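User: Can you help me understand a structure? I only have the sequence.
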Amino acid sequence: MISLYRIQYYLVTASLFLLPFNSLPVFNYALGEATGEGALYPLFFGCLIYGAYVTVSLMYSGKLQVKNKQILLIVICFLFVTFVSYIYNVNSIYNNLYLGKNGLVRYWTQYSLLLFVMFSVFYISSVIRDEEDLKRLINVCSYTFILVFLFSILQFYAYYFKVGFALYNLIGGYIYEEGVIEYALERRAGLGLHSVSQEPSFLAMYVAVVFPYVVLSKSNVMLRIVFFSLGVALIVLTWSRTAYVIFVFQLLLICFLYYFHYISLKRIVFYIPLFFIFVALVLFTESKLSLILMSVIDVENSGSSAARLGAAYSAMVLWFDGHSLLGVGLGQAGYYLIDYLPQWAFLSGDAYDVVNGVRWPPIHNFWIRLLAEVGVIGVLLFLMLFMYIVIKVNRVVKEKYLFNKEKDFIGYAVLTSLVGAFLIMFNRETITNMNVWVSLGFALGYLNINKRNAWSER
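Assistant: Let's start by predicting it. Here is the structure, written out as tokens:
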């Protein structure tokens, strides 16, 4: 008979396999932005089982069977502030209405999703009992990574040379929402590959979180080189500004950790000028890379940049306009953005779609969305959660080197993946960006097994 732990473990494994599939054609978009996220469904059932187990354990033992209680406390404080923001804005939330979406319904939908993804972090960490469990989950990521790369090859030939397009179109019918292939073909001249994901930037987010694990966890040098090459090929073929910026940050961090073994504030301060010199050299050369990076702020010639920066600007003005402490309420910023859109945002057709009621106003930036919706208190608490986990992981990596002279490559992967998760939230505002929560779950699992090892050595 399969144990309860095995069921939970298999569900996490399934979620890792489905992680890059974020545009699945299921439930006819009934769950909104969360509908297409493949990793969400096995994690949801896993969380139900884990939640029942925690509840029963609490009833019988009177103790909460959750590790990393300091992290849990920060999460509870963040959720509490989010609810206080609702109480503070309840009248306006009740009256909000846009595209048939009531503010009250949207708030509770978003709050329920927030509870779920936060709980999923602890659920993922609970199945990582030792280093072998973590390595097996990383192997699942490696196999999925290979699958994503192979499908990218099929996509490349189908899009650019119309070779194997019938096969690609057949598979695409099962893994994409309606219109994804058509939209990609319309913009093929300026759009990179997206493999099994909805668009290139979403693929880049997946790569940012998984790439450090599939490369750094391999003890065989040739395997590291192979997976590194696959990752670089995927990143280049996305033609995504997100991918390039995050990859530069992560590559520099990996080099830093390899030579200095752990993050040291003094060393980082020393190397910051070198980083800016490198960026300046890239930007002031007339290379393809520099043109792509400069297009991030080129609102006149890039409709995507005008849309993203315009939405971010609107959310910031909204925050300044009397909502700095507690924001306007979770999920509510979209109701106000139309009133704050700058004129230059209309260089993008997306702004006209928003004003004309064709689409929901996106912010494209999770951190700015948090600032507008839960205020500076909520942002500081969520930032504290991230920084606390990074500091704890770095402390483990540092102690392993100082006491055992051990290069902890999995620890390096955890830190690099966390940096990737932190950065991708500047490019996508949705709560159900499952890449972020998987990265945090792996980090908590890493802390759990190293805490246990530390006690066993005593």
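Now, to help you interpret it: The two ends are 36 Å apart (CA to CA). Confidence is low (pLDDT under 50) at residues 454-458. Let me know which part you'd like to focus on.
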